Amino acid sequence: MANEAKTEEVFRGILDSLGYYSTNSIIVERQQSDAPKIQKLLRSASKSAKGSGAGYPDFIIRDSSYPQLLIVVECKASATEHESQSRKEYSKYAVDGALLYASFLSKEYDVIAIGVSGESVQELRVSNYLHLQHKDIAHSIFGNDLLSFEDYYKGYIKSDLKYNQDYESLLSYSKELNDLLHGKKIPESIRSLLISAVLIALENEAFTASYKLQKTAKQVTKQIVGSVREVLDSSDIPETKIKNILHAYSFIEINSTLTSDKEFILNLISEIDENINSFIRTHGYFDAIGQFYVEFLRYANSDKGLGIVLTPPHITQLFVELAEVDKDSVVLDSCCGTSGFLISAMRRMIEDAKSDSNKIDDIKSNQLIGIEFQDHIYALATSNMILHGDGKSNIIQGDCFKVNNEIKDKFNPDVALLNPPYRNNTNDPYELNFALNALDMLDKGGKCIIILPMSCSLAQKGDELELKRKLLERHTLDAVLSMPDDLFHNSKVNVSTCVMVFTAQKPHSNHKKTWFGYWKDDGFIKVKNKGRIDLKNNWKDIKSQWLSAFYNKDDVPSSSVKHKITYKDEWCSEAYMQTNYSTLSKLDWIKTIRKFIAYQFTNNIINEVDKSPVIQSPLEIKGINWKEFNAGSLFKLYRGVSSGSVTTTENKEDSGDIIYLRPSNNYSIKNGYISRVEIKDDSIFPSSTLVMGNTGAGSHTWTYLIAEEFIPNNNLTVLIPKQNLNIYQKIFLINIIEHNRYRYAYGRIPSNKRFMDSKLSLPVDADGEPDWGFIENYIKTLPYSSSLSKIT
């Protein structure tokens, strides 16, 4: 007969061998706890079906050195009682019970939940889960072994889950700090400099030990600047650069708030140490200064006008992996901002150096190069590198277009990672100029990875087209990756972007196929007061899939494609990917029919709704032959009338007034009425006509069948089939068109030419022509299709 006591004794013996009982700071409690907070949290944690009363796991383990972390263990004798499929049979299964207790304790702690089953060491089963504080679910972690408390802690503190939790906390603190500094009337433009100065001063042990002992606020601010000076002096930064940096920090000793409010400045230093420094110490190699810089300027106009946005940290890390940076790489960022790319590169290079101190010193001294034009951002960039242990920082203040030869001759970089400033004024350089400039500084065969507005890849004329020509004339375009539309949400910048990957100093071959990736979903979502974060911890798996496809240049349906291009072509996956229509189902067309019928009924175009199909025998679309057709071979396109050229009324004032339509993501497209006498006849379209939105992030490509005479505005494209089609066939086409919506965005709208050149797939007959008969009958087999027969 199974004996749970045996399992507990086996587990206790393993704890003993792992040092749990010989370490004074570790407390192991069995089925109870002396800690009042734990008692309170578990007072209603019963495993019974009624769920009332207190409940305790078989073991509760804590270490006074790490008070935020608990380990809870539940044991079962039989391996068949290890873990249920639902993980909700709390009293019967080991894992389920451990997770239940973790869910209660996670209100105040980070909890490692361990399920153990088996009556001997040989048959023991172990499952480890991590349930972070204030999170809804636990995640499997650490494999299936029991570890020492120290190893559990190291794995927990360095896990992606903990990083995401701490990053969310850092984002929240950045907003709190911004509000605090705003309340103290500290200007946005100097807030990041203040933070960076405090962080550098905290690198000085004498400052850390004595700043709280100063008698006045003026003494504290003077000590901050003096400590920054000492840290800079101990680096290899030239004296001229040190003077420039100290000049940027000079406001600290004269700002009225900082020099008069001792309690405020002392609390500020303490909070920065607790919230920012602790994050850097724990997770390392993170552009915290850049994160705060962006937060402080989110509501200011100064740097947004300069086109400066912070590259999200998961993207700077992705760039490093795309470029396959290693310990021997020489990495350049020619418009480095706060040094986010260089910090991510440093992390990877030092990891690859595997504790070789000489190599690590060489990496920091000679293999990381940044160029920054603006004085205050240069100070932030240099400070950031110093905070990450690069006291010999090669951050050069200057114009990347003027120091390029110096950089190439002195450093011979072979990797460039950059996010150039976006062009806002006619006198600003084009973004592609930065790509060309960086590539020209790289050694032959070097890799340049640059994130740019999508418009750069689409350029069809003027200076940008000429830059595309020069790029391919000198360098090879290996890949272009379409990025999430809201990637820069945290910087309050709404721009569609792509990443271009080049090989330097090798002209693009006419035979070369460029790899295009559709990387629109990185798993990040927007959360109120936290910005865009990896809330569901999906990024790790998504990144792995992306990198695998990129390294192998896989053709993945609806995700990537290889295609030969010239400088005249669009450089994006949306132009070349084949749409996967197999994901369309009957439910999609039924939904389209219902939306159309609902609009007609609501607007009194029809008086009743018939839910029945016209044809009772079902038809299946699976297994039918499909073929691609140019949209231009199927439709004639017409644009509507601009709102500024007509007078509209809110209501129908005369029987001859005609409805005026605008784009939308549903059938709420009415935009008033226009008198028939005011408009030309060729701007009026008959009922049963298809229209498609041609602009707007939320409305482009959505397609509607209009069942009354109408006038479209110029943000709608009228689609007139070249063949005489009935209402059933047009309903079918709506889903085909909308299924290609992914091809378009605010930066790549479905213009007439772009849509006409696109491919649409349709079921075909034996001659390879659209099988309109099948298409009609398929719609007729669907619910509500009888209502369509009432509309002409």
From TrEMBL:
UniProt xrefs under SUPFAM superfamilies: DNA methylase specificity domain, S-adenosyl-L-methionine-dependent methyltransferases
Report the Pfam families cross-referenced here. Methylase_S (PF01420), N6_Mtase (PF02384)
Q: Gene3D superfamilies given for it? A: Vaccinia Virus protein VP39
What EC number(s) does the entry state?
A: 2.1.1.72
Cite the InterPro entries for this sequence: DNA_Adenine_Mtase (IPR051537), DNA_methylase_A-5 (IPR003356), Restrct_endonuc_typeI_TRD (IPR000055), SAM-dependent_MTases_sf (IPR029063)
Kindly list the GO molecular function terms attached to this UniProt entry.
Answer: DNA binding; N-methyltransferase activity; site-specific DNA-methyltransferase (adenine-specific) activity
Q: Could you tell me what reaction this enzyme catalyses?
A: a 2'-deoxyadenosine in DNA + S-adenosyl-L-methionine = an N(6)-methyl-2'-deoxyadenosine in DNA + S-adenosyl-L-homocysteine + H(+)
One GO term of the biological process aspect: DNA restriction-modification system
Q: Which residues cross the membrane?
A: none
**UniProt keyword annotations, A-Z:** Methyltransferase, Restriction system, S-adenosyl-L-methionine, Transferase
Give the top-level enzyme category.
transferase
Domain Type I restriction modification DNA specificity residues, every copy: 625-781
Domain named DNA methylase adenine-specific: residues? 287-531
- Listed name of the protein: site-specific DNA-methyltransferase (adenine-specific)
Q: Which organism is it from?
A: hydrothermal vent metagenome
